[in-house]
UniProtKB/TrEMBL annotation:
<dbReference type="Pfam" id="PF02746">
    <property type="entry name" value="MR_MLE_N"/>
</dbReference>
<dbReference type="InterPro" id="IPR034589">
    <property type="entry name" value="D-mannonate_dehydratase-like"/>
</dbReference>
<dbReference type="InterPro" id="IPR029065">
    <property type="entry name" value="Enolase_C-like"/>
</dbReference>
<dbReference type="InterPro" id="IPR018110">
    <property type="entry name" value="Mandel_Rmase/mucon_lact_enz_CS"/>
</dbReference>
<feature type="domain" description="Mandelate racemase/muconate lactonizing enzyme C-terminal">
    <location>
        <begin position="128"/>
        <end position="259"/>
    </location>
</feature>
<dbReference type="InterPro" id="IPR034593">
    <property type="entry name" value="DgoD-like"/>
</dbReference>
<dbReference type="InterPro" id="IPR036849">
    <property type="entry name" value="Enolase-like_C_sf"/>
</dbReference>
<dbReference type="InterPro" id="IPR029017">
    <property type="entry name" value="Enolase-like_N"/>
</dbReference>
<dbReference type="InterPro" id="IPR013342">
    <property type="entry name" value="Mandelate_racemase_C"/>
</dbReference>
<dbReference type="Pfam" id="PF13378">
    <property type="entry name" value="MR_MLE_C"/>
</dbReference>
<dbReference type="InterPro" id="IPR013341">
    <property type="entry name" value="Mandelate_racemase_N_dom"/>
</dbReference>
<protein>
    <submittedName>
        <fullName>D-galactonate dehydratase family protein</fullName>
    </submittedName>
</protein>
Amino acid sequence: MRITAARVVVTSPGRNFVTLKIETDEGVHGIGDGTLNGRELAVASYLNDHVIPLLIGRDPARIEDTWQYLYQGAYWRRGPVTMSAIAAVDTALWDIKGKVAGLPVHQLLGGRSRDGVTVYGHAGADTTEQLLTEVEHYVGLGYKAVRIQTGIPGLASTYGVGHVGTTYEPANAELDLPAESVWSTEKYLAQVPSVFKAVRDEFGPTLRLLHDVHHRLTPIEAARLGKSLEPYSPFWIEDPVRAELQEGFRLIRQHTTTPIAVGEVFNSIWDCQQLISEQLIDFIRTTVVHAGGITHLRRIFDLAALYHVRSGSHGATDLSPVCLAAALQLDISIPNFGLQEYMPHSPETDAVFPHGYSFADGYLQPGEQPGLGVDLDEEAAAAYPYRPAYLPVNRLEDGTVHSW
Ligand code: CS2
Ligand code: MG
């Protein structure tokens, strides 16, 4: 079997997605997600100009060899653009392998380790009172885990809070330049414990509650946040600080037992190595598209298993249904699964990417279709041309640029 063609499809059914489709001489095709929010065309160019010419004529069954060829063979390593491009190829090759075998990919990864993939939903609202209604909505749908985010008094807008009833989408295609938001750590730290208290008081001790700090604190501030939330037993706080300086997490660990989840902007096992091997985190949140595909993410999860670290894969709507389908194949099969983020895609996106996965009672099921269980409807995709859209830029109240 040989790869005969590959092409990149950039489509924007409400938001941009980059998809690689690989075709073979036996008529079987595979797809992979290469979406990098706000920098989509860089991955498309990396694939079109530098990767696709290398794929033609290769044996699609040689997934590991192709991964090493694209990774080591490029000499220049790691980084979100490179690793998303490699991920798109890797994911498409697993899709092909599953279809050839007539098996869903999780069967090739060792089969099911659990009956369903527990997911968390996003409750976000301007006020704590509105948030309680949002949480109620998720509990009513059967969710066992809910991420809670609210507006901060005194700040015009806050990460994680959309307009109630609409899909949260931080990248803005209406503006020529990135939107700008304003941040105050003092106002934030003064607000969050009361939000957790209100939700715990209303929903009791066993609902898993999560919160995303989105890289905004210093280690000592994060330690204070973790300590202040301990009475409300968060399931995790996510990205409490930027993770470039990983020894900073030792400081957080010295002060709090609140579990920590990190990794949505990581691209390789080397980005995770210190946090995992020093047991500085509890959940690793890397995902298929930004961390080199199924092949590499499984390696990260295997490393994590040695150190009591569980998976918590990123699953925002800027990762396409192809990425979600691939993540579910891993989630259902690995021994150290923790939790999967789930934000349902828009109906337009679901129509462009018909898929077999389904949600019921707080769990996602990957389905039993051969391969990943997701496809790309190219005709539907063609109706939604690419629209440039940037993620926001964040500033402190005095105008200093701060991590968004
Ligand atoms: C977020 C993401 O889902 C999450 O945890 O941190 O929504 C993140 O902001 C986006 O993926 C950025 O593209
Ligand atoms: Mg996050």
